[in-house]
Design brief:
Layout lengths: L13 H22 L3 H27 L5 H40 L41 H24 L3 H33 L6 H33 L9 H26 L1
Amino acid sequence: MSGGTYYVPATSKWPILASVSLGVMMTGMGMVLVHDRGTPVMAVGILAVLVVMALWFRDVVLESRQGLYDAQMDRSFRQGMAWFIFSEVMFFAAFFGALFYIRTFALPWLDGEGAKGVAALLWPDFTASWPLMSPPDSAVAGPAQTFSPWQLPLVNTLILVASSITLTVAHEGLKEGHRDTTRNWLFATLLLAVTFIVIQGVEYYEAYTYYGITLEAGIYGATFFLLTGFHGAHVIIGATILAVMLVRVLRGHFSSDNHFGFEAACWYWHFVDVVWIGLFLFVYVF
């Protein structure tokens, strides 16, 4: 492209279709949460969002392969991805903040400590502790026991740390023009990602079957599944992105100096890894 030009897709239909799809999906979710019905609406919305994303990203890939993007577009993509990851940071910060608030303020107040210790009048026999095995309200059953952080959680931590290393090797291989290195180490990263997901599924099965850790198991169960569940969803999304990157590498996409799609996938995956380290420390260890 000549200097000073900026590619803008004409009359793109994807933004409005994405908005409509998201609206249908959120309407369905609201119906399910409030009225316990609306699953078909939610399913249609989710499917529509996935289809729009796939077709929109396909067009972006085709435009990039046609050489329609310049340095300014590259900066725009980088800024957009940076802001997206920042929004994800704030998303998880809200859940970590809720966890810290409960442990630092709410539970001690219910035990008679602090400026709002009068809350102890609600359940005078309650004793604050974490993990909260015995919720103050006897109508709520707490978990039977908690996970040892040094078993499956530690294994998954090592797997994700290893996956960041293998992905970095793949990225460096791409920058050096060694496509075989990129392909092999990216495939290894994808295998580690799938292994993490499988182990997380095993842990959830054990949580419900043997440990009594459910979404209804008091505040501990709720925060456990909110944090690990949303992180698991992000791992699945990240693994899907890595699989797409692997297919593109196999098709000969990317070059040593033009591969932001691959680099953006690396940014996202490293973010997911960092979040898990926080989860391992504050959900399982401390």
